[in-house]
Structures are given as C-alpha cells and as structure tokens.
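In the laboratory, one determines a bound structure by crystallizing the protein with its ligand and collecting diffraction data. In a computational setting the workflow is compressed into a single prediction: the sequence and the ligand go in, and a structural description comes out. We illustrate the idea with pyridoxal-5'-phosphate.
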Amino acid sequence: MFEATLNQRLQQQACSGLLRTRLIADEISAAYLTVDNKQYLNFASNDYLGIASDNTVEKLLSSDKHKHLSSGAMASPLVVGRHKIHQELEQLLLDWVDAPKSHDCLLFGSGYSANTGVISALFNQKNKDALLVQDKFNHASLMDVGRNSQALGHCRQLRFMHNDLASLASILTKAAHDKSASEMQNKLVVTEGVFSMDGDQPDLPPLTQITKANNAWFMLDDAHGIGVHGNRGCGSLSAQGIALSDCDILVITFGKAIGAQGAAVIATKQTIEYLTNFSRDYIYSTHLSPTQSAAAIANIKTIQADNWRREKLAENIEYFKNHMNHSKFTLTNSNSPIQPIIIGDETKAVQLSEQLKVNGVWASAMRYPTVAKQQARLRITISAAHSKQQLDQLIKQVSA
Ligand SMILES: Cc1ncc(COP(=O)(O)O)c(C=O)c1O
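The predicted complex, in structure-token form:
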C-alpha cells in the first residue's frame, strides 16, 4: 500500500533538508507575522504595497454596494453566468492595462489555474504541431503544464536560458531550420514580468521583437509586476514601453501586490472566446468568488490612486540594497521587491532562515524543487508597509 512509499519519500525529503511543514499564523500583515504568540517582522509576503493588510474585509464589505454580494459564485461561469461584479473587474483590468477595444478579459480562480488553463487550451490534441518556448526560470504552473502537454504529444517544449535573448533567438532560429519544427504552425514564447524567485526582469522590447520576427506569439505572466511597475501600477509592459497589442496573452494575478486572490487573462476577443470554449480550467471550475472580485476591484483602485505606495516601496528597496552593501552576502541584480540572497546549500539556507526567526525576522528559505538544486536562497520581500527601522533590523540580523 501507499503508506511505506509515502513514509520513505517524506524521510528522503527530511534528510535532504527539503521537508515542508504547515503552520498556523495567528496574525499576518505586510510588516508582521505572529506564530505561537511570537511576533516576527514579515519579510516573506507578496503584499508588496501593503494593500492586503490595509483593505480588510470589514472595510470592503462596509460599502452598501457590496452588502448583498453572494459569498460564492455558485457554479462555473458557463453554467450560471457571471456576476456583474466580474464584468466590472474585467473592465477595470482592461482599462488599467490600456487594452484596445479588440481585447477582452477572462477571470480565473488563481494564477496557477490561469496559466495551466491557457497553455493546455492552446496545446491540445487538435492542435498538436506546436512549439512552446519558455524561460528556464518560469513558474512551476507554466513549466508543469508545458511538460504535461509535451508528454501527451501536444507540443514540443524548449526552454531558453534565463533572460538570455541570444538563447531565445537561437532556439527559435534552430526551430525554423529543423524540419519537424519549421512545419509547426503555432509557436508561443512565455516569460514573466518579474521572476518570482530571482526578482529580475526580462528585457521586453528585444524579447518581443525576436518573438515577432520568428512568427511566434508572446505570453507574459506578470504576477509580480502588476501593481508595482508601470504607470499607476499597470505592470511590466507599460514599465518597459510595450503596447498591450504587442503581447498576445497577458496573465495578471490578484494574490501578490493586488492583495486578493484570483487571476485574469487579457487577450484579443478571439483568443478569449477560444479560451471560453477550450480552457478546461475555466469551464470546469467554480468561478472566482464575487467577494474576491470586489476585493480585487477595491484594491486596484487603491493601487491606482496611491502613488505613494509605489514610491515608498521603491525607496525601501533602494534603502535595503544600499545598506546590504556592507554585508557578507551579495545581492542579485534585482530591483524589484523580491530580493533573494543565494545561499546554495539547502540545509544552510534553512538554518539561516531559522536563525533569523530566533531573532524575530521571518524570511523564507526557498529550496529545490522551487529553485534548482544547490541554488537555495532566502527570498526576502520588501513592502511599502515596512519602516526604515524594520529594514534596519532585517539588515542587522542578516548581516550578523
Ligand atoms: C510567476 C507566477 N505565476 C503564477 C503564480 C500563481 O499564482 P497564484 O498564487 O494566484 O496561483 C505565481 C505564484 O506564486 C507566480 O509567482
């Protein structure tokens, strides 16, 4: 039976310093975390703008407009229809990213589901001759669905070196000369606006040019760029001067800077109609809850209005980077709220994270398979909610 196998696998995880455990936090805010009655400074959340902590449910539901919202969506949007609040959120997102009239928006229950929903719909048994090209460091949701599609024979998946334009160009050029691949009608290049474990960003203008020159579509997962970068926080495309029409599929998630839950896909009306018909994640899942949609709407409006949050965040990131200069650890070239400290060895990364906890600082150790083996790291995240004193405390403890 399974018991022996499970036991063996768990023991292997523990011996390699890779065991994950769940815990209960009594309180979580962008700046603090309380576990077992001990308060820690929180440098692990994705609440980069401090919105999730500020816009509590009490505040959200106190508005008359939301008093009669149902707590759940009750079924798939194709079964009972979507609520007006879903439409309001879709329109708000389309306006925010300056989508042309030719575009539309589809909501998903999570970013994971949006990514798998898009890729598995584009690469399926009726559309097999296709090439999927992904940055090597793309999120697990993208890599897993690509791997599965390839295993099912629905596409060929190739990965380019992280943020390496020459590697991307070489893969696409090789594919054009390789007989089997050149016959492939459909090619999709996928990258992220801000990489979740490294905090760095791709150079989007040349990347989109290379993609276009090779007749491929371009998909951007902007989970960590939305809210933080671009005009009024509208994301990485705007920050790098790319028009939405140059991005064939944009994925936005609500669980990071937007401080809610769920995700959206923005693409041409034709693509959205296709996904409505063929994305199994969309068709066979209960729709995003109306209350989460209301939370996303309220938070996006706060993000658009509160420039000070982005300014404070940028100031905090700069402060952290400047003051960490004197520490024994080298930072990466990330200018985003994600500031990893690469440790390498898994056990050492966990030890450092545990040591920080003893001293009241919560920063998670990220290990294989979230990152490559021997690339374990402390994933420090900076928020606009942090004060200079809290950053000083972090810097002091990490440098000790
Ligand atoms: C780049 C990226 N895409 C997608 C996701 C998944 O989003 P969600 O947490 O909404 O499922 C994450 C979350 O960690 C992410 O970092």
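The first strand starts at residue 27 and ends at 28. Keep in mind that any predicted model is a hypothesis to be tested, not a measurement.
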